[in-house]
Design goal:
- The radius of gyration is 13 Å and the shape is globular.
- The protein is of the alpha+beta class.
- Strands 1-3-2-4 form a 4-stranded antiparallel β-sheet.
- Helix content is 14%, strand content 21%.
- The chain has one domain.
Length: 87
């Protein structure tokens, strides 16, 4: 639990701008922009308290898991690799 980090969301201004753009796929968790190349995205595991869970930590819904979400390749640079899930 000590290894979790807060989700590094983009600023509200950036998120609002991206939310107003059409999106034909799943948006990036951090900035809400469309992920144009889903193969280049990474996935992260997020808790109900908006923290990222390290990839090697198991977490159930009862323990606060919200599930896994995609992060676009540019925003993924803000997330340490130990939080990236392998699919």
């Amino acid at each position: 639990m000590a290894n979790r980090i807060p989700v590094p969301f983009a600023s509200e201004k950036v998120r609002r701008l991206n939310q107003n753009k059409p999106c034909h796929g799943e948006p990036c968790l951090l900035c809400d922009a469309e992920i144009k190349n889903p193969a280049a995205a990474v996935h992260v595991h997020m808790t109900t308290s908006l923290e990222l869970v390290p990839a090697d930590e198991e977490l159930t819904e009862e323990q606060g898991s919200q599930g896994c979400f995609p992060v676009g390749p540019e925003c993924a640079k803000k997330v340490p690799r130990r939080f990236w899930l392998k699919w």
